[in-house]
Amino acid sequence: MLEELRMIKANKIEKTYSKAAILTPVLNNITLSIQKGEYVAIMGTSGSGKSTLMYILGCLDKPTKGELELDGIDVYGMDDDALSALRNKKIGFVFQQFFLLERTTALDNVLLPLIYADEYPDDAIQRGRQVLAQVGLEDRVEYLANELSGGQQQRVAIARALINDPDVIFADEPTGNLDSQSTAEILDILDHLHQEGRTIVIVTHDLTVANHAQRILELKDGRIAEIKNP
Amino acid sequence: MTRTIRIARESVRMMGKNKFRVFIMMLGMAVGVASLTLMMCVSKGAYERVMDTVNRQGPDLLQIRPGTDVQTGLPSGSREVVSLIEEDVRAILQHVGNIRAAAPVKDRKEIEVIYEDKFTLTRIFGVIPVWAQIRNFGPSQGEFISEEDVSFAARVCLIGQTVKKNLFGDQDPIGQTIRINNVPFTIKGDLQWKGISSAGRDRDNRIVIPITTYTRRLFRDMHLTQIVITVEDTKKINKTIEDVKTTLRDQHNITSGEPDDFAMRTPQDLIDLAYGTSRSLMNLLTGIAAVSLLVAGIVIMNIMLASVAARKSEIGIRRAIGARKKDVLKQFMIEGLFISLIGGLMGIFLGMGGSVILSSLDVTASKITPMAIAVVILSCGLIAVVFGIFPAKKAANQNPIDTLRV
Q1: Residue A34: what are its φ and ψ, rounded to 5°?
Q2: Total of domains in chain A
Q3: Over pLDDT 70: what percentage of chain B?
């Protein structure tokens, strides 16, 4: 694989949690590569380590051992400030619980990552409205987060992930709290983003959701057990 | 727009989302700061009231009394001791330099005075004309006692403002006749208003008569109750005090090693009293204010800690989308600072209001000073830093993974 086409390269990643001198291995010898523009699903049962792997790939957590590159940048030795800057610039997150700020408008939620950007764009509000329109919420810009339905809240969360024009979007069970109609809408949006050329990594235990991806990595007991192409 | 300004704006926005919590913190701060403000205003007022007394009495005034008693922190002498005589005044004027004027004084308190069907108890002072300049106690209207009045032991007097009010009300007293100890006196004038002395006495409840009249027509006291002196050059006052003491000891045949039989009250005694009173009051009120501010700080810290716990997911998502630890720290510190300063301003206004009320009710003297306001604002900032840093650090050090896991 050509280096310039690679978005994520993980080599022999291990993660062990220790609490009160008890060591709990969660990830064991994970080696994987994700190309730019690829749509990858990470599947597994509860406790298989799929969310931990997503947090490590998304630079929110550090592996105990192993090497990790994001868009050609070695992130293993980076300090906390550098990782924060990297997340702000290159990564968008979507979570099962949406994690929007309550009593805050959809637009303000979407603009949140810009507060921590190196430069605050002059057209921030216009850009916020644009990404909300991209997820079909142009008529809900001034609604408070708690006035929106679950599906709409997740769409705001996707818009927030898009505001900094990230290279890769990590979605952790993005449809886990949604009804079937909202699930379909969110998956449509992710499909559309993929078609636009974005790299998407989705964590799910639902095969229907995973089937939207180009490639499925199945985790079992902290190891990649199977790689499927739906 | 810099990152810090963006974070500050975010802090303000988040405060607006949690109005009740923010209000409780501000209220805690306001109560603490109000007590600090009030403390500073009251102690400053108390100090200035005593200093005002010092200034009204004059920075060049020496008062000598018989005996060596001390009352309310000041040399007061004793009425039971008879050690001063008019010859002492002449000796001082003759032997001591730097003296502008000196006057003998005799006085008795609670003397019955009658005008027509009205009656009052007051203090009678027997003086000479120069006494008015020494004590800065001239007439507000009419004339003071003259040398002629003293020579002829004239039955004339000047009355203080309290006596005037008690006996005459709004009526003009000049030319009227009052009876002091049943002896008729013609009123030549009334004395300037003086207010309350540092010992808490009403300085307007007095009548002044010639010293010769006092001795020949009223009380036959041969001994003085006071000698009052003013000095020419206040820079040399300490030397003058020593010279006066030496002269009086010589006059009274006091040998070396024996104690004085008189007490001297100097301007420095009054200043020391002013500082002492101010300092004691300041210490007490500082203690109260410090406890109030400590409680306010603890209230802020506890509510901020509870707020950090309640806002775990907010902190987690901020970290996930790119906030550095120091950004989260800044956000919570700025929130603490705003709360402290706004609560502090509320407290300053409350304290100033309390100060004005206390002054207007004459409960205590109180004065608002820019220094007090500056100290209070600095205290607010200090409290924000001291009590806000712990919750802010706790927020900044939260692991985003722990807050984002379902």
Answers
A1: -125, 130
A2: 1
A3: 92
Q: CB pairs below 8 Å between A and B: how many?
A: 74
CA B367, CA A115: separation in Å to the nearest integer? 46
- How is B154-207 classified by DSSP, letter by letter? --EEEE-HHHHHHHHTTS--TT-EEEETTEEEEEEEEEPP--B-TTS-BTTSEE
Which among B63, B36, B375, B59 has a CA at the least distance from the CA of B244? B63
Which tokens hold the place of A131? Answer: 């990404």
Confidence of residue A189 (pLDDT cuts 50, 70, 90): very high
pLDDT at B50 over 80: no
CA distance B142 to B161: 13
Q: Domain holding A223: CATH number?
A: 3.40.50.300
Tokens standing for residue A156: 């705001």
Considering only residues B220 and B90, tell me which one the structure prediction assigns the higher pLDDT.
B90
- CA separation, residue A200 to residues A36, A55, A167, A197 (Å): 9, 14, 9, 9
pTM: 0.70
Q: Which residues of B touch A146 (CB under 8 A)?
A: none
Contacts of B325 in chain A (CB under 8 A): 80-81, 84
Mark B344-358 as b/e (b = at least 16 C-beta within 10 Å). Answer: bbbbbebbbebbeeb
A77 belongs to a structural domain: yes
Q: Is the ipTM of this complex over 0.90?
A: yes
* Domain assignment of residue A160, yes or no: yes
* Chain B residue closest in CA terms to A102: B17
Residue A11 lies in a domain: no
Which tokens in the block code for residue B170? 């709004």
Question: What pLDDT does residue B277 have?
Answer: 66
Cβ(B296)–Cβ(B33) below 8 Å:
yes
What is the spatial distance between Cα B21 and Cα B15, in angstroms, rounded to a whole number?
A: 9
Cross-chain residue pair B404–A116, CB shorter than 8 Å: no
Name the β-bridge partners of B75: B70
A112 in any annotated domain: yes
The answer to whether the CB atoms of A88 and B321 lie below 8 A apart is yes
Q: Which domain holds residue A222?
A: 35-62+73-228
Is B1–A115 a contact, with Cβ atoms under 8 angstroms apart? Answer: no
